[in-house]
Specification:
- It contains 7 helices and no strands.
- Helix 1 runs antiparallel to helix 2 and helix 2 packs parallel to helix 6.
Length: 174
């Protein structure tokens, strides 16, 4: 890695940390809200009559939390992966295999952005049963999170192309 590429990598990593700083508290707040809504649902069913909207809110929160937490796992390299074959390859071949895998992931994520956006548009007329919330907001999580993960994959590709073998995903501890 040359000193001329260092500012670019620093900027890209700073943007990733910024995204991370936004997503982490949102996931935490979503989990806290999910616990609160489910607790309300249980208490209202036991002590009073059931609050109708709690099931729908819990479902929507779970969907958003799952996708957002998935982006955090992707950024940290925590998704399930079988790496023994790639790790056994010699240096340049290992480098090429990682680039190929990231390229395939990027292509998949771009496809997911397009499909998710189209699906969001098709379902835009639909309203949720109890909240009467446009389902566009629920389905928007798919293209949004796919775009964030595509950004992370693109940054990893740039890091590999510029010769920075130690990506931030490998540096972060559990």
């Amino acid at each position: 890695m040359t000193t001329s590429t260092q500012p670019l990598l620093t900027l890209l990593r700073r943007i990733e940390r910024g995204l991370d700083a936004i997503i982490q508290p949102v996931v935490f707040a979503g989990m806290a809200a999910l616990i609160g809504v489910i607790t309300l649902q249980i208490v209202s069913r036991v002590l009073f009559s059931a609050v109708g909207w709690t099931e729908e809110v819990a479902r929507f929160l779970l969907v958003w939390i799952t996708f957002l937490a998935g982006t955090l796992a992707f950024q940290r390299g925590r998704h399930i992966a079988v790496t023994f074959a790639v790790d056994a390859l010699p240096g340049r071949l290992r480098h090429f295999a990682r680039l190929l895998a990231l390229g395939i992931m990027l292509a998949f994520l771009i496809t997911l952005i397009v499909i998710g956006y189209r699906y969001m548009q098709v379902q835009s007329f639909q309203k949720s049963a109890s909240l009467r919330l446009s389902m566009t907001y629920v389905y928007a999580v798919m293209p949004i999170c796919a775009a964030i993960m595509a950004w992370y994959a693109l940054v990893d590709i740039i890091e590999l192309l510029l010769g920075d073998e130690t990506t931030h995903a490998q540096e972060e501890p559990l």
